[in-house]
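Supplementary Methods, section 5.1.

A reviewer requested that the exact input to the structure prediction be made available. We therefore reproduce it here, unchanged from the version used in the analyses.
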Amino acid sequence: MESRRDPQVSLEPATADDEEAGVRRFSCQSGDGWHAAGVVAVGHTTPAVRSIEVRAADPTGDVTASLFRRVSIGLIVAEIQKALEVDDARKLGAESLSEVPLYVAGDQPAEAAAIELPLPDGYVRMTDALLRRVAEEYLLATAPGQPPRALDRLAATFGRPQETVRTWVARARKEGWLGQGVRGRAGAGPGPRLLGYKASEEATYRAQAAQSQSLTVERTWVKPDPDGKGGTVMHDSIPAVGGIERTEIERVADWRKYVDGRQAEADSSSD
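The structure derived from this sequence is encoded token-by-token as follows.
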């Protein structure tokens, strides 16, 4: 049986008429022998396909019942959702969704809420800092290539029952830290609040650089490995204007343990 591969979706720039109607035009190419184009309604919980035109990938091929059976509206909608989230990110100035930096102690701008990890036993107040961390961890756990049962891994990460973590993920979606998922498919993109946080955070660092004597500020963060516990400690030199100079500092076997250690050092130095 031929395996089904996710279609590659691209969005056309929205015209004034499209924006007024609340729609976007899309096209997609699949590895399953078909191409498609159509119109999708946006601005709701999930996009909804209004119209679609399907043709065979082979210019001389026919549109048959067998070809139609390989067209999955669910897969198309899921890919459209990702494309819309990338589009939103670019509007906010956060170009890359491949990295969601996890900042170590002392590296956040003064305006950023502190993130506590590990979480204390007992009742945990659902703060923005917690929801941001839940969103970051969820994005890592459901990234392409990750195994199923992401909630099991998140429960182990946070040391909480799976139902508690499920509630946190739902709240992160509701509060805009996570993008809306597509029914029947795990995962989501970053939500508008996470994207906005990243964009405003970058602006905050640049503003601090403009006021510093060296016209730069330093930032240290951890880039987790795509799989496993390891990660790379990264150092950024951020100027008031221009590109960020990024270097790798060291490899760590357990990036969460590294973050915890830095947090403990910061806590002890502030006592």
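The radius of gyration is 21 Å. These observations are discussed further in the main text.
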